[in-house]
Recover the amino acids of this structure.
């Protein structure tokens, strides 16, 4: 299906597309042909004719959105909210006191402990993404890091090591050049 506004696969995109299909159903009820509906709604004639066939079989209900494609989520919204609350308590509260980082493997184990289901690492990533989490890379800096010494080196020693481009030989690197 081609939509003039670019479509979309999110909840709002599905709702917008459903509204287009329902407008098409009203146009069919008014006696418009598939080609006229396609031109008016800026969709392909193939889509308009498919909608017309569905509308003739089942009315407007046949053009309603069927929801997101693919399988249903593994965890319901309530279970995801419960998981997020547990994640907010931190890894130490869940039994990991060596370091304070959540990894996908740890979250997978936590899901197994809390809900008695086994999920893949990819499913854990998808659940966390739906819950609003983003992947993070921890910033690891040496405990002995001396910011003042680093700034001094950058300001006073690096220019001497780097040198100046003005001292380089100018000209062509070509072996056939006369210069």
């Amino acid at each position: 299906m081609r939509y003039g506004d670019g479509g979309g696969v999110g909840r709002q995109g599905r709702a917008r597309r459903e509204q287009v299909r329902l407008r098409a159903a009203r146009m069919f009820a008014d006696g418009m042909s598939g080609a006229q509906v396609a031109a008016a709604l800026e969709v392909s004639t193939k889509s308009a004719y498919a909608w017309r066939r569905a509308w003739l079989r089942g009315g407007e209900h046949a053009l309603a959105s069927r929801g997101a494609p693919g399988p249903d989520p593994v965890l319901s919204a309530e279970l995801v909210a419960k998981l997020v609350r547990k994640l907010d308590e931190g890894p130490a509260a869940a039994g990991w006191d060596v370091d304070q980082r959540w990894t996908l493997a740890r979250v997978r184990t936590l899901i197994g402990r809390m809900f008695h289901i086994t999920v893949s690492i990819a499913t854990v990533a998808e659940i966390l993404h739906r819950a609003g989490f983003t992947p993070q890379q921890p910033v690891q800096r040496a405990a002995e890091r001396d910011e003042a010494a680093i700034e001094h080196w950058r300001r006073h020693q690096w220019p001497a090591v780097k040198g100046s481009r003005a001292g380089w030989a100018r000209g062509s690197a070509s072996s056939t050049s006369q210069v």
